[in-house]
Amino acid sequence: MSQADAQFDNVSVETRANVYHDGKVTSRVVKFADGSHKTLGIMLPGEYTFGTEAAELMEITAGSLEVQLPGSDEWLHIEGGQSFDVPANASFKLKVHSLVDYCCSYFK
């Protein structure tokens, strides 16, 4: 099942939003019983740079963007239903073309 169709049961949600880039990117943390967590968020059109601590799987549930992954000069086009991985302790760039809905999973 893709995250676009996912329902998370038996979780807790942090009601305080994570707000980035002057409010153009927001997310909420969803915590699972096993101690793992994901963030569910929205990005408005714009260009952004993010850094990671843990490895991430970014699943785009709606919208379109381009991503420049660490160590690459290439921009990859990503649309709703697609995803990309980002390694731990890295930086990546996004060019968001339309409102993007996303789910981000974190790995140790």
Automatic annotation (TrEMBL):
Q: Return the SUPFAM superfamilies for the record.
A: RmlC-like cupins
Classification via InterPro entries: Ppnp (IPR009664), RmlC-like_jellyroll (IPR014710), RmlC_Cupin_sf (IPR011051)
User: Which Pfam families does the record associate with it?
Assistant: Ppnp
CDD domains from the xrefs? cupin_PpnP-like
Gene Ontology molecular function: any one: purine-nucleoside phosphorylase activity
Q: Which HAMAP family match?
A: Nucleos_phosphorylase_PpnP (MF_01537)
Q: Which domain of life is it from?
A: Bacteria
The reaction(s) this protein catalyses? xanthosine + phosphate = alpha-D-ribose 1-phosphate + xanthine; inosine + phosphate = alpha-D-ribose 1-phosphate + hypoxanthine; guanosine + phosphate = alpha-D-ribose 1-phosphate + guanine; uridine + phosphate = alpha-D-ribose 1-phosphate + uracil
Q: Name one GO cellular component term.
A: cytosol
The enzyme's first-digit EC class, named in words, is: transferase
Its job: Catalyzes the phosphorolysis of diverse nucleosides, yielding D-ribose 1-phosphate and the respective free bases. Can use uridine, adenosine, guanosine, cytidine, thymidine, inosine and xanthosine as substrates. Also catalyzes the reverse reactions.
Q: What is this organism's lineage?
A: Bacteria, Pseudomonadati, Pseudomonadota, Gammaproteobacteria, Aeromonadales
The record lists the organism as: Oceanimonas pelagia
Alphabetically list the UniProt keywords.
Glycosyltransferase, Transferase
Q: What is this protein called?
A: Pyrimidine/purine nucleoside phosphorylase
Q: What EC numbers are recorded for this enzyme?
A: 2.4.2.1, 2.4.2.2
